[in-house]
Specification:
- This protein is α/β, with parallel strands linked by helices.
- The protein has one domain: HUPs (Rossmann fold).
- The protein is built from eight helices and seven strands.
- Strand 4, helix 6 and strand 5 form a beta-alpha-beta unit.
- Helix 5 packs across helix 6.
- The N and C termini lie far apart (36 Å).
- The chain binds zinc ion.
- The site of zinc ion has 10 residues, from helix 8.
Length: 232
């Protein structure tokens, strides 16, 4: 086995989705010790949390450390309703954002991750935010992540590094990254076990994985798969 190129230890924001599963494989290829963190926040697609264990098992090796679960359900619920956490139709808001946007969610996630990283002595925080092929969430933007890194380092007196390997990759390129990292075996693990669908539907199997096939998350995933499989 080739030694990982960096000696730093990492913490991966791991939701059980396609992006974070790819990020976990990416981190395991680079860092000798990788831990994961996941959040329960009353998400309608809480089934994604059940998808985490099979993916972790498939990627398990000497470099994979413990998993941390942070329960933010009461916090997020008390901040207000969104289509990601309530049974309402997914629509666009007047600001041009899907109403699945949970204001501040990723900022909260990164702050919690930084607290765990601080306590566990992990220098790298790896997250799957993407500005290229995303739902328009402002907290996925590269500038947001860079500003958070600065704020967290000032607030915690640390030199944490926030890494977002998917920031400039579209969904097709994310599938390609998975193949580069782990070949068809990893692609198959992600296709079968990762979960993207906002509605939590795992009853319908498509060639790109499970999902309702109609929500924005399914649309993105299906489109990326199709473009990766049939370029041009
Ligand atoms: Zn869906």
């Amino acid at each position: 086995m080739i030694a990982p190129p960096f000696t730093d230890h990492a913490l991966v924001l791991f939701s059980g989705g396609q992006d974070s599963a790819t990020c976990l494989a990416w981190a395991l290829a680079r860092y000798p010790h990788v831990e994961t963190i996941g959040f329960t926040y009353g998400q309608r697609h809480a089934i994604e949390m059940e998808c985490r264990a099979p993916i972790r098992d498939a990627l398990a090796g000497p470099g994979l450390g413990p998993d941390h679960i942070v329960d933010l359900a009461a916090t997020i619920a008390s901040l207000g309703r969104t289509a990601l956490t309530e049974d309402v139709a997914i629509t666009m808001t007047e600001e041009g954002l899907p109403n699945t946007f949970v204001p501040g969610r990723n900022l909260l996630f990164l702050t919690c991750a930084a607290a765990i990283a601080y306590r566990r002595g992990l220098r790298r925080i790896v997250a799957g935010m993407c500005e290229t092929d995303y739902s328009g969430y402002p907290d996925c933007r590269d500038d947001t992540i860079k500003a958070m890194q600065l704020a967290l380092n000032l607030g915690l007196q640390r030199r944490l590094v926030l890494e977002t390997p998917l920031m400039w990759r579209d969904k097709a390129a994310t599938w390609e990254l998975a193949r580069t990292l782990g070949g068809d075996t990893l692609v198959e693990t992600i296709r079968e076990h990762s979960h993207s669908c906002y509605l939590g539907d795992r009853t319908q199997r498509h060639d790109w994985g499970y999902g309702c096939g109609a929500c924005p998350a399914c649309d993105l995933r299906a489109d990326g798969w199709r473009r990766w499989r049939e370029p041009g």
